[in-house]
From TrEMBL:
It comes from the Bacteria. SUPFAM superfamilies: P-loop containing nucleoside triphosphate hydrolases (SSF52540). It comes from Pseudomonas qingdaonensis. The keyword Protein biosynthesis does not apply. PROSITE patterns: ABC_TRANSPORTER_1 (PS00211), ABC_TRANSPORTER_2 (PS50893). This is ABC transporter ATP-binding protein. Pfam families: ABC_tran (PF00005). Keywords: ATP-binding, Nucleotide-binding.
């Protein structure tokens, strides 16, 4: 079973934190246990994307360490990491004329030899992933012609065929309408693999995450279950907004109603 651990992480752009106070990370401790869906929330500019980039081996920490099943992530090869960690980002890749099926099949590359092509099993995984994200029959569509929401689902399908042990999502619902926001997060939760996701919509975070970490000015200021973390006091202190917190009438998680300034 896979566990992702981040311990005493420090990072700042180009190593000059004194010039970039808004974006530096300071003493971050975070854990994603087997099967957990962990949410990372915080205001814009709090360091969420920077932290995720450290977790998927893009930003090298200045201090602290990140381990995956007790293996130091930054002492492993990129291929080793790609075989275990899949990432869904806010930005879409340049597909250079690739079809949907070809983009999804890229998720199999870390598991193939240098001169291997796609096997019948690889192609079956691609078809299943497209079915899972609601894009069955889109195989030959040009990726570049899709809507933002469709592209996001293709990238999720690519992550699924990667067969990751850890899934990292950076604002995965940004380009999706409500139906597919709910469908995507439900599907991720059903995977029951270790998942770390930054989520902008706090009601979605409350509904789908097992635990939450709150990042503010590069520091973790709160962590726990949605009921423990999403309080009116914390939202006022961290987000600067008044909110009414009650229990969702149809489910056992908090519901947030934002209160507009008068």
């Amino acid at each position: 079973m896979t566990t992702l651990n981040i311990h005493n992480l420090h990072w700042s752009p180009k190593g000059h934190g004194h010039c970039h106070h808004q974006f530096q990370l300071r003493g971050v401790d975070l854990q994603v246990r087997p099967g957990e869906f962990v949410g990372l929330i915080g205001p814009n500019g709090s360091g969420k994307t920077s932290l995720l980039r450290c977790a998927y081996r893009f930003n090298a920490p200045e201090r602290g360490h990140i381990t995956l099943d007790d293996h130091n992530l930054w002492q492993q090869s990129p291929r080793w990491c790609a075989q275990r960690i899949a990432v869904v980002l806010q930005e879409f890749p340049d597909a250079f004329g690739l079809s949907v099926a070809e983009v999804v099949a890229m998720g199999r590359i870390p598991h193939q030899g240098l001169f291997d092509g796609d096997s019948s099993q690889d192609r079956q995984r691609v078809q299943q992933a497209l079915l899972d994200v609601g894009l069955h029959g889109f195989d030959d569509h040009a990726f570049a012609t899709l809507s933002g929401g469709e592209k996001q689902r293709v990238i999720l399908a690519r992550a699924l065929v990667q067969q990751p042990r850890v899934l990292i999502l950076d604002e995965p619902t940004n380009h999706l309408d409500p139906r597919y926001q709910l469908a995507l997060l439900h599907q991720v939760r059903q995977l029951r693999i270790a998942t770390l996701a930054s989520i902008h919509d706090l009601n979605l975070a409350a509904a789908f995450c097992d635990r939450l970490y709150v990042l503010d000015h590069g520091r973790i200021v709160a962590s726990g279950t949605p009921h423990q973390v999403l309080t009116a006091e914390l939202l006022r202190e961290v987000f600067g907004v008044q909110a009414l917190i009650d229990r969702h009438p149809l489910a056992d998680h908090p519901r947030i109603t934002w209160i507009a300034p008068q």
